[in-house]
Every structure is written in C-alpha cells, then in structure tokens.
Design a protein that fits this description.
Blueprint lengths: L3 E7 L5 H8 L5 E3 L5 H11 L12 H15 L8 E5 L7 H7 L5 E5 L2 H14 L16 H9 L4 H13 L7 E5 H6 L1 H12 L16 H6 L23 H7 L16 E2 L1
Parallel strand pairs: 1-3, 1-4, 2-3, 4-5, 5-6
Helix pairs in contact: 2-3, 5-11
Length: 271
Amino acid sequence: MDRQFHFISGLPRSGSTLLSAILSQNPRFHAGMSGPIGGAFNNLLGELSGRNEYSVFISDEQRRRMLKGLFDNYYGPEYNAQVVFDTNRAWCTKMRHLKELFPQGKIIACVRHVSWIIDSIEQLVRKNAFQPSSIFNYVPGGTVYSRAEGLANGEGMVGYAYNALKEAFYGDETSNLMLLRYETLTSDPKRAIAAVYDFIGEPAFQHDFENISYQADEFDLRAGTPGLHTVRKKVAVRERTSLLPPDVFRRFENDAFWLDPTLNPRQVRVV
C-alpha cells in the first residue's frame, strides 16, 4: 500500500497519546503511542556505519532503502490506513533523515510547560506507590528532588526530549516541523486538530472530542506505571494544584522557549 508517513514527537506527558487517540478516529489514519521503530532506526543506522567492517559494501542509497524499509515492513497490510503517524521522542533528532526518506512527511512536536510535565510524572509515581516505575528503572527510593533531577538531566526522560526538541526547533529542517501546545489541545481541541490537518494537507474530518477512546493498560502495567497512557473520554482542561515543592516548580517554569517569538528565528509554527 502506498502510504503517507507523518511523525509525532516532542516532550513526554504533553498530549501525544491524546493527539494519537483523536487522530485515530479518522478511518484513513493510524496513530498510536511510542513504538519500536525509533529504536530500531537508531540501531540499524549504527549497524550500517563504519563500525561494521562490511560497511564498505553499503552505499548511502542502500542505507536509505533499508531504513525506509523499517517503516514499510512494520506497517504491513495488517495496518489498514492510508496515513500513518509514528510516535517517538527521537524523531526530533532525525529531522534530516526523515526529510530525505519522507519528503512530504510532517513532524508534530507536542509541548507543555516543563514544570507541569515533571509534576505529571510525580503524580503518577505517587499514585502508584506500590509499583516502582520503569521511568526510574524500577528503583523505589529517592525523593521528589532526585526524581526531578533524574528526569531533567540530558539522558533523562524529559531532558533528552527537551534537548531533542531544541535541536529540531533551531535546526535547518524546520519547514516540516510544527509545535502543538498541550494547553491548546486540551482547551481548544477543534482548533488544534484543524491546525494539524492544515499542516499535513489532509481534508477535514469531523472528530468527536467528547468520546475519545485509547487503551494501553497492559503496557503501562508492565512498565510499573499504570495510567501512563490513559486518555480520558472527554477532552477538557483539568485544573489542579501542583505536587512539586515551589523551588522545584520554579526551576523549570521559564523553559517554554516556544512561547517567545524572539526565540523563534525560523518562524516555526506554534499552535
């Protein structure tokens, strides 16, 4: 099947699962949570590099075909969709690769205030107090401070994604990049999804924002983090008080660079 591929990336706990659940209402689309393609892509790219003595027999054109084949073969005939959205936080580090492999492909990066991302993860940890999470390698110790530090460092769940986002945002392949704010998606889903359709060049579809369905309970349970990919039935803003100590919350509250037009030299579309 001749498919169009697009990509969902960006920050964790910022609406990527909700976005996928909404898009999946369109029978022409397939979208889901983060899958294995991103990791397989990196591994194959490494195996095709000079560290393999047989790399002298591999041309760049062969590399392109093999990397593109990952998508074509993974999304085989059992995926009955004309448009596929693959989700992975690593895609923001692969803008040049994706542009060459899928010239018409778009990358939608979901973003959210980092303080609230850290808070959202901390909320999950406390809610599942008797199940150590894979987010922290199933280690049950630590404090809110050590957990925030671990999440925010360059190799952490949030820090890696944040640095990858900035790499994409300030790189030279931004024509295929759009940032979608969690706050927009939850407060005005109709406008948010209309912007996505406009960005990817697809005809409008009537979505039901009061009847969203998405299940990944088995995956979340195995990851020791029930609720990690839970999507509520109705899209809505839910106000609550942060669980973070004030100093932890303040540490990240100015990290939303996408809100400042002066920090957007390439005029990346931010919705």
